[in-house]
Amino acid sequence: MFIRLRSDIQCILDRDPAARTSWEVLTCYPGLHALVLHRRAHWCWTHGFKWLGRFVSHISRFLTGIEIHPGAKIGERVFFDHAMGVVVGETAEIGDGCTIYQAVTLGGTSLYKGVKRHPTLGRNVVVGAGAQVLGGFTVGDGAKIGSNAVVTKPVPPGATAVGNPARIIQADLDVKREEAASKMGFSAYGVTHNDDPLSQAMRGLIDNAGSQEHQIALLWQAIETLQANRSATNCVPSDAALQEHFEADKLNQLVGK
Fold this sequence. Notes:
With about 260 residues, this protein is an alpha/beta fold.
């Protein structure tokens, strides 16, 4: 028991720069307290003391603000960071090394008893603040769930899910982004608003449309020059055709560039 407690304290010291001492973590971190109480509740639940397990879980919720059903399975070195408002359902499973932030829900979408209703998190999964992971599917090892994402489908290992409904960003795209960012002198954070694939697609379409209008304007200018050289009097383009009116910058601001 004490070996596991030391492991829990050390994982918090490793992942939270605000944690200064083991004593501070032991006395002031509700995520640690919730884990300790959950293990007692889970023992009661699995040994037939269902009511006692629920009661310990209820006391834990009152003391920590974190609601974990006693039937949920939680691995080693799990860190509930801040974690106020976190809800973990009965059939949820959290793998070793996961980090879960505040207001996260690992919830179910089925009303049938005796079935897998809640998600399974693999090893080293990070779930951002306010994320809702709903359903009896699996989030793969090393995956990331962005803040306020609503995930209702499986997430592959190493991928990132962002948005509502959540869209998947594959790990190889993250690697390419990190390589490009390092060349520019900074390291990109794993989950930002720029990672939203829908916004990226919209920005790509906007940039492409602006480029096409620029090319069309150049073509009209070339036609006008040829017509002028031949002293032609017809088919002269209007001033509107010679100028670009596509407001790409303004549209990019609207989609969050």
